[in-house]
């Protein structure tokens, strides 16, 4: 558990350092950078929503498949 927490702390610190470095070294203006970051974030959110919806549909189909044999057994009793 300790090594996992150390990994998370290191990953977080690396993400912060990388983000700050990218912001300081980017050739774009502040408004351009904000716009670009916003567009990328919105695209990422949309991809996450689509993936969640796809996974939800898969899980729903699996649930229905698991329920089907049970319903058939109960009606046959």
Mean pLDDT: 84
Number of strands: 0
Biggest sheet architecture: none
Measured as a percent range, the helix fraction is over 70%
Contiguous runs where pLDDT drops below 50 for at least 5 residues: none
Question: What spatial form do the alpha-carbon principal axes imply?
Answer: elongated
Total domain modules: 1
Beta-strand percentage? under 5%
Helix/strand-derived category reads: mainly alpha
Terminus-to-terminus distance: 50 Å
Encode the helix/strand succession as letters.
Answer: HH
Integer-rounded radius of gyration: 23 Å
Helix count, DSSP H or I runs of 4 or more residues: 2
What does this protein structure show overall?
This protein has two helices and no strands. Helices cover 92% and strands 0% of the residues. With 77 residues, the protein is an all-alpha fold. The longest helix is centred in the C-terminal third of the chain and has 47 residues, at 30-76. It has one domain.
Key attributes of the depicted protein:
77 residues, 2 helices, single chain, mainly alpha
Write the layout of secondary structure elements.
Layout: H1 2-25, H2 30-76
Sum this structure up briefly.
The protein is 92% helix and 0% strand. It has 77 residues and is mainly alpha-helical.
């Amino acid at each position: 558990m300790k090594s996992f927490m150390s990994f998370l702390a290191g990953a977080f610190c690396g993400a912060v350092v990388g983000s700050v470095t990218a912001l300081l070294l980017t050739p774009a203006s502040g408004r351009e950078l904000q716009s670009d970051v916003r567009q990328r974030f919105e695209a990422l959110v949309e991809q996450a929503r689509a993936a969640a919806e796809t996974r939800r549909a898969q899980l729903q189909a699996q649930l229905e498949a698991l329920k089907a044999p049970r319903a058939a057994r109960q009606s046959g009793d």
